[in-house]
Amino acid sequence: MQTKMIPGTNIEYGSNEDAFSVLRPMIEITGGFSLSQICRITDLQTSTIQNWVKRGYVPRPEHKKYYERHLSRILLISALRECMNIEDIGELMRLINGDTDDESDDIISETALYDNFCKAVKGLEEFSLDHETIDETINAILEKEEESVRERLSMALKVMVYAYISGICLQQINDNLHRLRGEDNEKTV
Question: What is the pTM (predicted TM-score) of this model?
């Protein structure tokens, strides 16, 4: 499975770029994203993001600006929400980094977590639910992490990767079902 889009966005990957090597310059140029800019790159509604902030899944914006940690959370939720409900995604995030607004309890930065997730997804060259391939990909990504947090991060990344793959499959199912319904409607008219 090779994804052409940065997970959670409508932005294409460059050659061998990490997700945030594409996104970081945009944040720096704008001095932080506005809500409307986030909506443009994610295809999310403003009310959806505001609801995530209100419910504590995303840190509150700083002076109406969204920075890397905000964007990382939003993109993770956006990428996983096709097949995980928001409460489960929120719990997963809390298990990794505790309170959304308190960075002192984080075991990994939101940006590094998102980049690791993107690397794991991008590293899967072909669509495969082969547990060994996914384990090897994630273990290679996390080899420099402290052993005390590696297992927790590994399990979290596995949940994210499987959810993302499931979301892609679900989207394909819905797209094909929609096409089928369109073809059936044309035949009956």
Answer: 0.75
